[in-house]
Amino acid sequence: MDLASNFVMMARYNQRMNVQLLSACRHLSPAQLQRNTRSYFVSIMDYWNHLLQADIAMLTCLAEHHLMVADKDFHTLSFTWGEHRFIDDLNTMIERREEVDHLIVNMTHHLTDDLLHTRIQYQAGDEQTVEINLNGFLLHLFHHQTHHRGQLACILSQFGLDVGATDLPHVVPELLDSTR
């Protein structure tokens, strides 16, 4: 599998895991979604908001570097991109997550190995300037998502919810042995 195809696989994994975990969240009350989890982020909704905002920040960076290719205009989505607001309604979160995940999947279908070696520069959350190739940037995007979704899966299991299979071969089996 070529390098670009790995990102297609990771984007599908990301999308499908978000659907699985958000589906599990539908079994919780609004109060449970806001309850203090005594973990890295205060509540389940805090986790979802962090993931969404981080993804939007990273996609914005790609758009600013003209590396965001999508079938839908990035700036016409219903989410106010530059605004860091808290979404406390699960249905609204699901809608926004679906929009962003669609963009991520679509973007990966336009990647080439040459493009993945493009250097980009951005301001990290701690205001440090980071220079990295697109390959490393996307690895960070997908590892960040996987890390926090793992925390969410643990929290949801503590509520007695089954989030389903989380292993890559079970979630995206069709892409493991294929090319794009």
UniProtKB/TrEMBL annotation:
<dbReference type="Pfam" id="PF05163">
    <property type="entry name" value="DinB"/>
</dbReference>
<protein>
    <submittedName>
        <fullName>DinB family protein</fullName>
    </submittedName>
</protein>
<keyword id="KW-0479">Metal-binding</keyword>
<dbReference type="InterPro" id="IPR034660">
    <property type="entry name" value="DinB/YfiT-like"/>
</dbReference>
<comment type="similarity">
    <text>Belongs to the DinB family.</text>
</comment>
<dbReference type="InterPro" id="IPR007837">
    <property type="entry name" value="DinB"/>
</dbReference>
